[in-house]
Amino acid sequence: AFEESDLRRGNLHGQRAHKQLLQARRELEAALRQNGANQINRLADQAARLSAAQTQAAEKSQEQAASAEPSQNKELREQQKQLQKATEQLSHDIQQVSSLLEEDYPEASQALRSASQQADQRGMNKKQTRAGNALLYKQFEAAAKEQRDAANLLQALSQELQASAEKRRNQPVCAELWC
User: Fold this and answer.
1) Deepest in the core among 74, 78, 121, 162, taking most CB within 10 A?
2) Contact 97, 134 (CB under 8 A)
3) Which burial class, exposed, middle or buried, applies to 175 when counting CB atoms under 10 A from its CB (0-12, 13-18, 19+)?
4) Which are the contacts of 173, defined by CB distance < 8 A and separation ≥ 6?
5) Could you count the other beta carbons within 10 Å of the beta carbon of residue 38?
6) Sequence-ordered list of residues with C-beta below 8 angstroms from that of 39, at least 6 positions apart, any chain
7) DSSP output for 143-171
């Protein structure tokens, strides 16, 4: 049989263990939130880099439009194809991260899907395709316009992803052991 002092000591140790478990859980949740936010930030950075590259492509197309000798047609078309492939990869990556977050963080997953869908609805892929087609027919001004529009949509996507990462990072931690 246990003595009264053993029960008090056991209760104190149990309370201390409970508090430590709660603290460990909070730290784990915070680390998981941070990891999710970091994944989303990487996607946002990727979208920002693509936006900058698309802007540079638009500037090159505009330079070719002003040039008397449009000589970089193939190079510009190839660059546009690569940008379009990279944008498709970004979209795929967003879907993957969204799927990974779905079970534990449905709000973050939905925010990612929503950002990706908005970019699609605004015609990002279509604009990149039209830019490539315009370059094929040496319509450099039209290509530059579509490239600028695509760059702006990529920048908007980047900003939406960054906002999603911030929301993810700032979600409150559950204070109870089992929420």
Assistant:
1) 162
2) no
3) exposed
4) 26, 29, 30, 33
5) 12
6) 97, 100, 101
7) HHHHHHHHHHHHHHHHHHHHHHHHHHHTP
Q: How far, in Å, CA of 3 to CA of 82, rounded?
A: 76
Three-class secondary structure of residue 175 per DSSP = coil
Region of residue 126 (phi > 0: left; psi between -120 and 50: alpha; otherwise: beta) = alpha
What is the separation of C-alpha 1 from the centre of its chain, rounded to a whole number of angstroms? 60
**pTM confidence score:** 0.83
- Residue-wise pLDDT for 103-137, tens only, equals 888 888 899 999 999 999 999 999 999 999 999 99
CA dihedral of 53, 55, 57, 59, whole degrees rounded to 10:
-140
What digits encode the pLDDT tens for the residues 146-161? 999 999 999 999 999 9
